[in-house]
Amino acid sequence: MIGLEKENNMPYISKSQREVVDADIDRLVQTMKSVPDFSNNKAGILNYIISRICCEVIGNNKEDIKYAKVNEVIGSLECTKLELYRRLAGPYEDLKIIQNGDLQLYEKVQEK
Q1: Distances (CA, A) of 50 to 32, 57, 80, 91
Q2: Over 60: is that where the pLDDT of 4 sits?
Q3: Under 8 Å between Cβ of 77 and 54
Q4: Burial, 45: exposed, middle or buried (Cβ in 10 Å; 0-12, 13-18, 19+)?
Q5: What is the pLDDT, as a whole number, of residue 8?
Q6: How far apart (Å, rounded) are the C-alpha atoms in residues 21 and 96?
Q7: pLDDT digit string (tens) for 89-108?
Q8: Rounded CA gap, 97 and 103, in Å?
Q9: In the chain, % of residues over pLDDT 70
Q10: pLDDT computed for residue 60 by the predictor
């Protein structure tokens, strides 16, 4: 990581800001996991929670809805998605390629 220590680093939110929200996030996650039939509807429940948070950030009244607010929230969601893929899904897929082999077309394209 460019000039960043690895331990508990989140470049876009300070440690003191995380300390303010972490306990509430932990409680929300525990509550989410306690929803009846959570294991069969994780995606729906997570989608609902994220949607509610986004709507609260944008605003509850028609007058609150502005392009800049919507754009800011959508940008945050997109960057979150990309970060999750880069940090979790990408390395997992790389491991599976090593374990199970790559798609032949990718191997041919990447040959040197």
Answers
A1: 11, 11, 12, 25
A2: no
A3: yes
A4: middle
A5: 54
A6: 35
A7: 999 999 999 999 999 898 88
A8: 8
A9: 89
A10: 85
97 Cα distance to chain centroid = 23
Could you write out the DSSP letters of every residue in 18-87? Answer: HHHHHHHHHHHHHHHHTSTTGGG-HHHHHHHHHHHHHHHHH-SSGGG--HHHHHHHHHHHHHHHHHHIII
What amino acid is encoded at 34 in this protein? S
Six-digit token string for 45: 């429940």
Q: Give the rounded distance of the alpha carbon of 25 from its chain centre.
A: 13
Task: Tell if the pTM clears 0.70, that is, is over it.
Answer: yes
What are the tokens at 28? 């929300």
Which pair of tokens denotes residue 8? Answer: 């508990």
Q: What is the pLDDT of residue 1?
A: 45
